[in-house]
Amino acid sequence: MARSAILGVGHYVPTKVVTNDDLAKLMPTTDEWIQQRTGIKERRFIEHDGIGASDLAVPAAKMAIERAGRNVSDVDMILFATLSPDVNFPGSGCFLGDKLGLPGVPALDVRNQCSGFLYSLSVADAFVRAGTYKNILVVGAEVHSTGIELNERGRDVAVLFGDGAGAALVGASPSDDRGLLSIALHADGSGAKDLWLPAPGSMHSPHRITHEMLDRGDHFPQMNGKQVFRWATEKMPAVALEVLKSAELTVADVDLFVPHQANMRINELVAKKLGLPADRVVHNIEKYGNTTAATIPIGLSEAFAEGKLGAGKNILLAAFGSGYTWGGAVLRF
Predict the structure, then answer these.
(1) CATH second-level architecture of 4-172?
(2) Which residue out of 20, 114, 135, 144 is catalytically annotated?
(3) How far, in Å, CA of 125 to CA of 136, rounded?
(4) Which of 65, 125, 140, 299 could form a disulfide with 117, with the two C-beta atoms 3.0–4.6 Å apart?
(5) Could you tell me where in the chain the CATH 3.40.47.10 domains are found?
(6) Span 207-242, pLDDT tens digits
(7) DSSP-assigned beta bridge partners for residue 137
């Protein structure tokens, strides 16, 4: 079976920059408070109504395909990771396929939130190794700005998130020493309600959402920040070491670590636990916030543009998020 590889990466973020000072005009917070707790300085929001996750995915996908030296028509499968789909159904992958002009190409949405890109990468890897598909477009895209509560009640969550998209074209590795060396996925639903969106939901009867739910703010994300921080700083280092061991590598072999961008403090602690110096860790949360499924592919795309994904480089990926779900992967470019 052929080893899979990321052949090209791309990203896109909206042009509208929202600073911490901008948020301070909408809720009781400060630039200092946000930076101290999260490391975030600014984030991007969509410019106007009518822009969905699939719209952000289009330029990111085209960039990834071009960097891979392929044409859009070469894509034979779409995996779309998002927690903020354009609509509840159908999946955003279907919208993306239509916008790219790919009629008949299968599309699958993956709803694993912050771990969505790694879960999607695992699915793509299996399809490539089985010979089922040759050029799989793996996308992480989010529009958070229309789903957060920009007031005092929602500020702890609202300051964290931004809009953006990242993409990777996955196919058979061009050489035996390049590609995805190992990947591991995990989940533990005991922490599901520590980070979740209670409504609308099919578990609510007779209506999936009511005026009472709206008044309570059940349609906005809710988070137990301390629990999420504790779990993330435990599980991300553990899964990183797991995939390194599976790839028969050590931390010393890692050229670049691209962690999910949920909180700068989480990533700094994870890197410290792994013994990775700051110059080998990708951070972009300060300018984009948490773009959930898009953070890792955006990080990879920017690292590529900066010349950090050269041939033979060992790249470590790790994520933790809602579910709880978490995962890790090791790639050699």
Answers:
(1) 3-Layer(aba) Sandwich (3.40)
(2) 114
(3) 9
(4) 140
(5) 4-172, 179-332
(6) 999 999 999 999 999 999 999 999 999 999 999 999
(7) 78, 169
Give φ, ψ of 254 to 5 degrees.
Answer: -75, 120
Judge whether 94 counts as a catalytic residue.
Answer: no
> 179-332 belongs to which homologous superfamily?
Thiolase/Chalcone synthase (3.40.47.10)
Cα gap 230→228, rounded to integer Å: 5
Please say if 151 is a catalytic residue.
no
- pLDDT for residue 2: 81
Contacts of 261 by beta carbon, 8 Å cutoff, 6+ apart? 267, 283, 284, 285, 288, 289, 290, 291, 295, 299
- For 330, the token pair is 């090791």
Q: Among 20, 135, 267, 290, which one carries the catalytic annotation?
A: 290
* Type of residue numbered 234: E
> Of 260, 267, 284, 314, which is the active-site residue?
260
